[in-house]
């Protein structure tokens, strides 16, 4: 996709951080933009900053399928058909999996994974039916590749977004719709304050917020990459139809180390009785996978 001007874009988590940076960049490219966020006061503040007649705000809990459908109808009636979808909303919880509750899981899965699923399921059928092409960009994270004990649930959701996005890229190539996955590192954003927007219905299993820890996180995020820089690199990658958008080049060496460790765990085993038949089956799967990658890359 080389032409962005004139298209309508929908950006979740669009009132601050990467989402707001994307909105600015898209408007500069001549797009009409709808920014969605769960915080209505943040939407109002963002709209004042953007000051553009081709932008609108949409209050939205991305975990709600019904709200997503209503938001889609409303914004498309005002701005036209969406052909640029940015599933960007995300929250974080800085604790380990073994120290987490069902409410913790439901909260992060609802926003970070189901929010992407809801965006795709709401808008992609419309994009396919209209036949105008377009692009879907799902925000994952370097946490889709790099893990630690904490934040365990966050890692889980981002690994899932990675698998969803790659599979979606291959299925949508035939419809002229590209798919990318944004994997930022440290960003100047408010994700450190995720606890402030946790739904009341999912607080029963929550641990008491460590305000000192949150304060330290805020200082770390002040050193994060500017959202406008990430947005510029994202739109460049979309126009080049790249799948992986690695906005933070400082992770390249570490990712190479991890991939080397993965490959090092393969072993040369004695040939087992079913190997010959499996190799034939896998040769077909491998050829199909390569064909899918080539088709998606050729958009």
Automatic annotation (TrEMBL):
Keyword DNA-binding: no
Any one Pfam family match given in the protein's UniProt record, by short name: adh_short
Keywords noted in UniProt: NADP, Oxidoreductase
Keyword Transmembrane included in the entry's annotation: no
Family of the protein in this entry: Belongs to the short-chain dehydrogenases/reductases (SDR) family.
PANTHER family: DEHYDROGENASE_REDUCTASE SDR FAMILY PROTEIN 7-LIKE (PTHR43391:SF14), RETINOL DEHYDROGENASE-RELATED (PTHR43391)
Name by which UniProt lists this protein: SDR family NAD(P)-dependent oxidoreductase
Taxonomic lineage: Bacteria, Pseudomonadati, Pseudomonadota, Alphaproteobacteria, Sphingomonadales
